[in-house]
Amino acid sequence: MYNSGIYSYINVLDKAADASWLRNELISNNIANQDTPGYKRTDVDFESQLSQALKNQKYTSIDAKVKNADLKKLNGRIYTDYGDFSYRMDENNVDPEQEQVKLAANQLKYQGLIQAMTKEFANIKSVLK
Fold first, then answer.
1. Which domain holds residue 62?
2. What is the CA radius of gyration of the chain?
């Protein structure tokens, strides 16, 4: 991570990409454990932390909010889904079809984040020329 203001968006995108990568691993683990009795699915919560970090700064532009975001607080929080529902008698709550859809959506999100970071670096490079 860079401390200069020109890298603010890249730093936040980097944190989001890390959380997306972690989500990909967790979803893959959920799919691998779809037949494990008593297994509860896990996921990562990053979006609400990002939203909270940006909401805490009222009456400023989005650029200022991103620049002033506390990157130390922008880490994905892993949680276990202990919902009262279970798809099977063995208390496993993994729905394989739903996990596959979440995996595909997360992969698209990750690719979009990487493309956004690439574009930010290209913008910085064009300014430096």
1. 5-128
2. 18
Residues 102-127 have pLDDT tens digits of 999 999 999 999 999 999 999 888 88
Q: Among 15-24, 34-43, 51-60, 77-86, whose mean pLDDT is lowest?
A: 51-60
- The SS3 of residue 114 is helix
What's the structural domain count of the chain?
1
Q: How far apart are CA 32 and CA 26, in angstroms?
A: 10
